[in-house]
From TrEMBL:
<keyword id="KW-0325">Glycoprotein</keyword>
<dbReference type="GO" id="GO:0030245">
    <property type="term" value="P:cellulose catabolic process"/>
</dbReference>
<keyword id="KW-0136">Cellulose degradation</keyword>
<dbReference type="GO" id="GO:0008810">
    <property type="term" value="F:cellulase activity"/>
</dbReference>
<feature type="region of interest" description="Disordered">
    <location>
        <begin position="414"/>
        <end position="440"/>
    </location>
</feature>
<feature type="compositionally biased region" description="Polar residues">
    <location>
        <begin position="425"/>
        <end position="440"/>
    </location>
</feature>
<keyword id="KW-0378">Hydrolase</keyword>
<keyword id="KW-0119">Carbohydrate metabolism</keyword>
<keyword id="KW-0732">Signal</keyword>
<feature type="signal peptide">
    <location>
        <begin position="1"/>
        <end position="18"/>
    </location>
</feature>
<dbReference type="InterPro" id="IPR013320">
    <property type="entry name" value="ConA-like_dom_sf"/>
</dbReference>
<comment type="similarity">
    <text>Belongs to the glycosyl hydrolase 7 (cellulase C) family.</text>
</comment>
<dbReference type="InterPro" id="IPR037019">
    <property type="entry name" value="Glyco_hydro_7_sf"/>
</dbReference>
<keyword id="KW-0624">Polysaccharide degradation</keyword>
<keyword id="KW-0326">Glycosidase</keyword>
<dbReference type="Pfam" id="PF00840">
    <property type="entry name" value="Glyco_hydro_7"/>
</dbReference>
<dbReference type="InterPro" id="IPR001722">
    <property type="entry name" value="Glyco_hydro_7"/>
</dbReference>
Amino acid sequence: MFPAVALLSLSFFAIAYGQQVGTLTAESHPKLSVQQCTSKNNCQTQQRSIVLDSNWRWLHSTSGSNNCYTGNTWDTSLCPDPTTCAKNCALDGADYAGTYGITTSGNALSLKFVTHGQYSTNIGSRVYLLDASDAKYQQFNLKNQEFTFDIDMSKLPCGLNGALYFVEMDADGGSSRFTANKAGAKYGTGYCDTQCPHDIKFINGEASLLSPTFTAFFDPNAGSGQYGSCCNEMDIWEANSMGAAVTPHVCSVQSQTRCSGNDCGDGDNRYGGICDKDGCDFNSWRMGDQTFLGPGKTVNTNTKFTVVTQFLTSNNQTSGTLSEIRRLYVQNGKVIANSKTAVAGMSAYDSITDAFCNAQKTAFGDTNSFEKLGGLQAMGASFDKGMTLVMSIWDDHDAKMLWLDSDYPLDKDASQPGVSRGPCAQSSGEPTDVESQSPDATVVFSNIKYGPIGSTY
């Protein structure tokens, strides 16, 4: 994710994240089938399920139903300090469809943007794929592999993001490393990404109660703690109907890591932290082809299509170093090659390599923290450890999603290389507008497949 605090917009009204397990609502994970392929036309269906991130869940006292957290404020009687809070507060099960607008059917997952429930209004959601045990996140190593899914984002306007990506979360949600975390992956704990988000309510088994390190917050329902939760992130797909990007981000640390102070890379210290917040993005519009993806374009976002992402290695083996990330599309039975860059000073790249990333950063005048923190080799090392699949829908209280679908940053001339990222107006993406005007916005991810290069489409 690109903005410094982009994920803040995901926080759920009056609901938060805890470590004990509540008993007031049964947790039943919606089923979602995926396919593992061994060769072309040879794929086996796996029955899996998804789990809601704990940041959205009801957090209440272990002895009753009093809220531990409301809006962006902790109940100080239940949560006088981080460790006591973890003991006093329980994380409960979720009504996926009724409260959160999350439904599955066979191999399809549908995420609705705004859901008006009996007791609350929910904005956005984030879910993870569980493995066959239904108690741990499925781990992926995609080196010398490809990952494929179908996407219908025809109902996602400017300012929204239907995202599918991988992060280096602990498979058990952190419960073995941090024994105060009793909920684990079954209740969606342990999130991290390269933005080192400060809105995670519990990090390392402790409530994030302490004073924030910065105050760049615009969402009244998202709080900020002193610590952030950092890890490597591979954004396969960040998109709405007007634009899309594929972006690897890397960190100098392995696995989920709690940051504080300068290590978080907050505010003016964006490029001084342990993670590369900008990443190395391939956005066709930003790379100079404004005809490639969008309504009625070569990849027509008015209808469903297939996204194929291939992770090539230096020796064409899973043991090799990650050297290239390639993208293909399939729509109406036609395989569509990725667009090529058309930017002054750059060759005609159509994939992500370290050479592409270096050329892009130079052409756009951007800080190259991706190279500094290890580039594609570091991304491959993260896959070696195992990464968790995340799917979400969200709006952006920090940068209005302009970094994905409009001009960004706004203090630069849109004619400068790299500033124009999509056709949406600079005034678009205001969360209050998006939430009121497009409450029924929905993204549907389906037909997930993974396997050797060339096996999934």
